[in-house]
Amino acid sequence: MSNGRIVKNTIILYVRMVILMITSLYTSRIILSALGVEDFGIYNVVGGIVVILGFLNGALSTASSRYITVALSTGDLLKMQRNFSNVLLVNGLLGIIIFILGETAGLWFLYNKMEIPTGRLYAALWVYQISIITVILNIVSVPYNAMIIAHERMKAFAYISLFDAFGKLLLAFLLERLLGYDRLIMYALFVFMIQLIDRIFYGSYCRRKFKETHFSFCFNKSELKEIFQFISWSAYGSFASAGFTQGLNILLNLFFGPTVNAARGISVQVQNAVVSFTTNFQTAINPQIIKSVAQGNISDTCHLMISSSKYSFYLLCILGLPIIAETHYILSLWLENVPDYSVQFVKIMLVISIWSSLANPLRIVNQAEGNIKKFQLYECSVLLLIVPLSYFGLKMWKFPELVFFVQLIIELLVQVIRLKLVLPKIHMSLSKYAKEIYLRIIPVFLFPFVSIFLFQGIEESFLRLCLSFICMEILMFTLIYYWGMTTNERSFVTNKIIDTLKKK
Prior knowledge:
By secondary structure, this protein is mostly helical.
C-alpha cells in the first residue's frame, strides 16, 4: 500500500476539484441566466431521459476500472492489453444498443409522456438527439479514463478535466452573446463539442503513455464471457442508480412541471460540487483497494475501506454542513433568480450525499472481489423502490420534497444490506465496523448542527455566513481530530503538521 501516492494523488485531485467547483458553479449561474428557468429545466429533464438510456455507461466504467486495475496488479502486459481490448469492444457494442434504445423507446417517451411547453418540443428534440450522441461518445472514452486512473496518473486526469471545465465556462459566455439562434440547442451542441475534444485528448494520452491501450484482436473467450457477466450485473446497478435519480426528475416534471426540474437542476449542481470532495479522494484510493483485494491482502483491504469510508464522510461534512446551514443566503449570492424549492432540495440532497458516501468503499471491495451478483440483486432491487414509493406518496401528498425524503430512508436501509453482504468477504464483524466508523462519524455529523441555532437570530448577511462557517469548521475539525481519528491517525497528522512547520 502506497500512502504517499494516495496523498499525492489526492492533493492533485483536490486542486483540480477547487478549480472545477468554482468554474462549474459560476458556469451554472450564467447558463441559468442565458437559458432561463424553463429552458434550463427542459435541458435537465430531457437530458435525464438519455442518462436513463445510458445507464450502461456506469456499468462499463465499473467493469473497465476493475479489470484493467486487476490486470495491472499482475504486471502481465499481454493480459493488460487483452483486458483493455475486451472492455473497448464491449463498450462499442453496448454503445450501439444504447443508440437503438434511444431512437425507439426514449424517443417515444419524449413525444408521448414528457411535459414540454408548447413551442419548445422542436428544441427539446434537438437536445435529445445531441445528448444521445454525447452519451455514446462518453461510453467510448470509458476504458481510456479507467486506464489513467488504474495507473494513478491523476495529473493527466486533472489537466483534461480542467480543460473541460474552462471549455464549459467559455461556452457559457458565448451562449449569452448568441443572438438569432436557439440557445437551448446551441448549448447542447457546444457540450457535445467539448466532450469530443476530451475524447481525443484521453485517447492520444493513453496511446502515447501505455502500451496496452493499442487495440488488438487478442481475445480470450472465457475472459470475455466473464466481463460480460460482470457488466450485466453492474448494468443492473447502473440502471437502478439512473432509474431512481432520473425517475425522480421525471416524476417532478409530471407532477409539478419544468420549473421544479430547474430547482432540482440547481440542487444537483451544488450536490455535484460538494460530492466532488469525496469523489477525488475515492478516485485516488480506489485503485489501491482493488489491488489489495486482487493480491489477497485482507489487512490492507480493511484498513483502506475504513479510511475511505470515514474520510469520505468527513470531507462531505466539512463542506456540506455549512452550506446546509446557510443555503438560502448562498443561493441568493450565487444566482440572480433562485427557482422555487431550490433551498429545500439542496438541504435534503446534501444530507443524502453525506450518508451515501459510506456506500462506495463497500461497493469497491465487492467489485474487486468479482462475485457481484448477490450484492447487485439485493442493493439495486431495493433502490428501485424509491420511484414507485415516491409516486404513490405524491399521489397522496403533493409536495416535491417528499421524493427526497423517500430516497433518504431507502438509502439508510440499503446500507444495512451492503454491510451484511460485504463485511463477511473481508472477515470483518458488524460490531467492529460500527465501532470503527459509526461511533466516530455520528458525533461529527450531529454536533455541528447545534451551532446553527446560535446564528438564527442574526439577519442573513455575509458576516453571518462567515461566522457560521468558521464556527462549524472549528467544531468539526476538533471533533474529527479528537473523536473521529484513532490514536495512530492523530499521531500521523500531528507529525505531518510538525514536519511542515519545521521546513518553513
